[in-house]
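re: that complex we talked abt at group meeting.

here r the seqs, copy pasted straight from the sheet so there may be weird spacing, ignore it
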Amino acid sequence: MLNKNTSVILLLLAALFSGGKLAALDQSVLQRAFDTVSPALCVLTFTQETTDPRSGEQMRQNGFAVGLNVAPEGLLLSNGHLQRENVQTFNFRVTFRIDGKEQSHPAVLLKKPDELNISFLRIQSERPLSLPSVQFDFQAGLALAEPVAIMGILGESMDFNRAIQEDRVISVVDSPRLTYCLGTPLKMGFVTGPVINSRGRVVGVTGFDLTVAEGGEIFSRSGHPLVYQASLFEKHILTPPDQTQESIEAEEAWLGIFTQPLKEDFAEYWKIDEAGGLIVSTVIPDSPAANDGILPGDIIRRFDGQSIRATQDRDVIAFTQMVKEQTPGAEVKIELLRDGESFHLTTTLGRRPRAAQDADEYMDEQLGMSVREITRDLRILLNLGEEVQGVIVRRVVSGSPAQAARIQPGLIIMSMNSFTITNLEEYQEAAAFFERDKTDEITLFIRAGAQTGFLRLRPRWQHER
Amino acid sequence: MIHKFFSDSMFFSRRLLPPGLLLILSLILSSCAGLSVNTQDRVLSARNRVAPALVHIRPVKEVFVSGKRTEVLTVGSGFIISADGYIVTNEHVAGESSEVWCILSDNTEHQARVVGVDPYTDVAVLKIEAERPFPHVNWGDSDAIEAGQMVLAMGSPHGLARSVSLGIISVPDRYLEGASGMTSPYNNWIQTDAAINPGNSGGPLVNLKGDVVGINARMLSGAENLGFAIPANIAREVVTEIVDHGRVQRGSLGLVFQEITSKTDDPQARGVVIADVAPMSSSYEAGIRPGDVLLRLGDRPLQARYEEELPAVRKAVADLPVGEALQLLLSRGDEEMEFTVTAEEESAIKGINAEFSEWGFTLVELTPELARRAQLHGHTGVLVSGCLPGGLAAISGLTPGDIILKVDEEDISSLAHFMDLYKTLQDSKQKLTMLFVQKGALTRFVLINRADNQSFVLDREILDHVE
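got the structure back, here u go
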């Protein structure tokens, strides 16, 4: 009996494998793909400095990642983990291997797109470059169980040799955007590696999404590698992100609310005939929304002429994107439901405030700490009222006067001797004064958590270089 | 706040040495064999005086973990202080317990009544009853102790009843800043190298006369022979308050103090630095601001040059009668200024927990300190302390740390208020309940749909049936 059953299963399995649908990629397809795409792969080496957010301790290490060149003049896609909170990456060097010969260039990071965990780098060269680059098929998609090939590089001990591996799409994720899930764990050298479909087309790159806490997007806390379809970053290849950050911020509009979808049972509770819409859950003080009278509990049903019928958590992200793409200063009509009544208002969108990761920072070499401005998102994260003004300590140098004064990362400095500190410029002015004056003692008025207090700091001017 | 926990760069108030003669005498004696015999005798007699009054305590503690109330059996120590059966132990031993069992030195077991607890000093008072008088200890004077003096720690380390360890007082007045939820604003600590382990909590620290000079309460884990006891003089006062009134009432001015040296080294500087002023307190209303230096509390001059002088300052404020106006003398810059303030009652340090089993979650009363940290205007709301996985609260998206501000349209003023509303909701047929909650700076709506709970209830019914 048992034998018979087993043989039936074996037969079925054999049928599946010979059916052709789950066939592996043809060796010749792989070889051809390797020949055309691998020259655009390069080895990106860098130094990374990680700051422990609690202790402020820093650790440096060298690393490498695969870089994928997408333009002859030198535009690279690489692992988005190069740009993370509490991580600084620098000393970029890009090495191509063209016809067996190595060619090396410096590179700089560009602003990271908020919607994708991919970093962009611009290769620097005095003379114009004509580097091998990869051509994406922006239209092509993938199908469930479709076999794919991924290209990458092996580690240093393998002399960074180019490599190719097979995988399969094990799941198609359709929200918050179309993404494909791969079945096999990826080695470091294959992250942001090009993904090739069964017809030999380069359809995207591999990657991992970040969690919200890391400043990225939602899912894949699972650790499953994903395929970012080429259409997701097409616009960034055509118009590469800026090296400076201000210009990007200027373009993004801001309303200043947090929302949640109006699901069926919420609609039932509030006796609204039709579910769908965005419930305003939080209004940020002093934001355009607050100034124009939007209140928590309002339900957005129409924004700028577009009907809002959100019922899923992911729709919130789409709405945020919709607001971002408006122009700051634009007047937008919003239709709300307030206490069951339809309510119209016009709001003037503001400019999206800077996020903590882009905040200006000042390294005070003399006192041995770096401080940064309190950005809007930090204010929300730390639940600081508008009355709390100052600069926030980012890190403290080991053995420094700041450490001796028991200053810790996360502390907010509100005054130093007679200087009131409300922003980074005021800190810098005070610091410059202390240095000129050789002030022997600085009393700081600080806030740690919900409490204020004083600390005394003794600078060591004699230790000047 | 500013982390100074166990740092070694602290200053200590210099205590006067006792009369030189005694010291010399003991030095001479210590060189002969005579003393060791003598010491042995004194250790024995001290131990024998206290041992009959030593209590092994087994409380059944209520703990609220992941949205559920559970009971756990723990072990602690204590000692009888009166013939009619009052027992002293730690608040962290006997507080939040559903029952407390005491095993005396004669191995008799008594269920004790918790007379009262004081989390601020970690002192609890229990009462047991019997026909006969109980053996009891005598309190010693903790202000008369000095570093180097021999002491015994008695109690039930790791549940091992009747244990005695010997050591000396390492530091008589160690200042410990509040850390990891433990705070002791009104007292310094007796530091000893007599072995203290978990389970010693609530047991007596005894001098060689056999008097209790402290209540063993803390140890520094990861270290050896660093134990800490609450000074007897502080404890006695608290015990008396608890015996007389069931609790300790303290005054508060909404002020946080720092030692003078946090601002200046000037040897002429007097008073105590005001580091923070609670919004909405009478001090804030009167115009007192951080950075002011408090010189006089009514007629009483105050001084805290070093941090170990802070507990005495805080205690002076706590001793103020609640509701009475008094004058404060402050210095601001070069000026001296007078302010009239009224002491309010110091709020509870811990909120009461409660379980709501139908929704599968636990709530804790929002203390003013928690409300302040959450930047809540006014003391409204209740804090979600835990959600049972799979329970209605968890399914609905409620998470620990959420503060429930509103139920349907009604603002929540207290835990008791929420309990009333909850009971009404449970009795009614209402299917949907809207909560307006806050976490950090963000607010959101959470809908409790009792229809979602049916499968949960069903499972329970099936389980009941199986049993």
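couple things i noticed - The first helix of chain B runs from residue 20 to 30. The two ends of chain B are 52 Å apart (CA to CA).
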